[in-house]
Design a protein that fits this description.
By secondary structure, the chain is of the alpha/beta class. The protein has a domain of 208 residues: 3-Layer(aba) Sandwich (Rossmann fold), CATH 3.40.50. Helix content is 38%, strand content 13%. The chain has a 6-stranded mixed beta sheet with strand order 4-5-13-10-11-12, sandwiched between helices. Helix 11 runs parallel beside helix 13. It is globular. Bound molecules: pyridoxal-5'-phosphate and zinc ion. The site of zinc ion has 8 residues, from loops.
């Protein structure tokens, strides 16, 4: 291998229209979210995706050399390659100059071996990828570093961008606000009022973002952002901007890397706007194309039953017809309370490209109890991870998994961002939830004998 940092300039990536037969291409520094040739008023028409010059990547290194290069950089200090995202820069976003990279050392998160939890279920190889152990407490940091870095590059090149704007169910705005604050770029966030957790609200405020709390839901905030961003000086940071998905894609690569590049059998992903399941699937497909893995895992999309458009379409065999958005109902899994997912068709295409993939849902009761059960085994799970875990339990009851299957559950946010969810669960105050693992404080006199008596009763 020639050097540990092959000049990224040798590689190219661009936006390409996803409409079959269109193929229009745009520079990654163009301010464009929908194809100018075929994108109409429908927000899903003419969505773009980032494409890489795979032939050049293959010529540059053998599969083994790519693995060695990624391993050599992983969690080390050489800027910006110690980041889990930028350590794979050539596969993610070769177009950005290193001095414009805005990185907060994202990725490199623990792959938790759920040994006790798994064994209690008869699953010997169950793992939870703790993507929420991250700078702002959710996996959104992985994509945001790529988007904000490209914005910095664009500003550097003279583009008149005044601010970066997003609609959010709570985690995107926290991430955008932090990365923009670190880079000195103004951020604007539109949140559904009273629908995000208190930590999720205070994060963008603390980072100085202009924060609008609006009397609507996520889908309502999203339409407003779409209108706002017709003004090109306001750059759109939602996941229809596929730059973010390139960063999210590294989740798959990092998981395989953490198993010393061994393949995995199943990956379970909580699904809202459908960007991440698509990105994670694309990460596996790219690794297979590049010869880094020989076999794909099966993907499982997990939705809250209260906001389940993908489940409904899956059950009808992904019919070829225009999509009629749902009105998402209130769910504890607020970050995936989306009835009108922008990346729906990308996700469907990816699920169809990966044989044996499936989609399942979880009720409020199922997601809250699954999260609490995982906590009993040493985790501290957010409600979205609860959705994925509930789907794991459900499919396991249907005997989908063999005891030695290697199963990865994607944990998308840190449980500490959702204190109300935890407190109310253990106080038996959640609607539609019968808590099976509630644990409440024992309030007795501060007296040694009393405490010893209580212990004798309970241990
Ligand atoms: C964004 C998010 C998701 C869902 O990702 P999508 O790309 O919107 O499907 C799941 N969990 C958490 C915590 C999130 O913030
Ligand atoms: Zn097009």
């Amino acid at each position: 291998m020639s050097s540990s940092h092959p000049a990224a300039e040798r590689f190219r990536a661009w936006f390409e229209c996803t409409t079959p037969g269109c193929g229009a291409r745009y520079e990654l520094t163009d301010i464009v979210y929908h194809c100018r040739r075929c994108g109409g008023h429908d927000k899903r028409a003419g969505l773009l995706e980032v494409k890489h010059d795979l032939a050049a990547l293959k010529r540059a290194h053998s599969p083994q050399d790519w693995k060695t290069l990624f391993n050599r950089r992983y969690l080390r200090t050489k800027w910006p390659y110690g980041s889990g995202v930028w350590g794979k820069k050539e596969w993610v976003c070769p177009n950005v100059d290193n001095h414009n990279v805005v990185s907060l050392y994202e990725g490199g998160t623990n792959l938790f071996w759920a040994e006790r939890f798994g064994k209690s279920l008869g699953l010997n190889d169950l793992w939870i990828k703790l993507c929420g152990n991250s700078h702002t407490g959710s996996f959104k940091d992985l994509g945001m570093t790529v988007l904000v870095s490209m914005v910095k590059q664009m500003i550097h090149e003279g583009k008149p961008i005044r601010a970066v704007v997003c609609a959010s169910t709570g985690d995107t705005s926290a991430s955008l606000a932090a990365y923009c604050a670190a880079a000195g770029i103004p951020a604007v966030v539109l949140l559904p009022k009273d629908k995000v957790s208190l930590p999720q609200l205070i994060q963008p405020l603390a980072n100085g973002a202009l924060t609008f709390a609006l009397d609507t839901d996520f889908d309502g905030c999203m339409s407003l952002v779409n209108e706002l961003c017709r003004d090109e000086t306001l750059y759109l940071a939602n996941s229809m901007n596929s730059l973010r998905l390139e960063g999210q894609k590294t989740i798959s690569i990092e998981i395989v890397q953490q198993f010393d590049w061994e393949e995995v059998d199943w990956v379970i992903v909580p699904v809202g706007n459908c960007g991440n399941i698509h990105a994670i699937g694309q990460g596996f497909l790219m690794m297979k194309e590049m010869g880094v893995i020989q076999r794909l895992p099966r993907l499982i999309g997990a939705q809250a039953a209260k906001a389940n458009p993908l489940v409904q379409l899956y059950r009808r065999g992904f019919p070829d017809e225009p999509f009629r958005p749902l009105k998402a109902q209130t769910t504890l899994a607020n970050a995936i309370q989306i009835g009108d997912p922008v990346n729906l068709f990308k996700a469907i295409r990816t699920l169809q490209q990966i044989p044996g993939s499936l989609v399942e849902e979880a009720t409020e009761d199922e997601l809250a109890n699954a999260a609490a059960l995982a906590d009993r085994n040493g985790l501290f799970t957010c409600p979205h991870t609860g959705v994925a875990l509930a789907v794991l339990l459900k499919l396991h009851a249907r005997r989908l998994f063999a005891p030695d299957d290697r199963i990865i559950v994607i944990s998308t946010a840190n449980g500490l961002k959702f204190p109300d969810f935890k407190i109310q669960y253990h106080a038996s105050k959640l609607q539609e939830v019968q808590p099976r693992y509630a644990n409440t404080p024992i309030e007795v006199a501060a007296d040694l004998d009393t405490i010893q008596r209580e212990l004798d009763k309970r241990l």
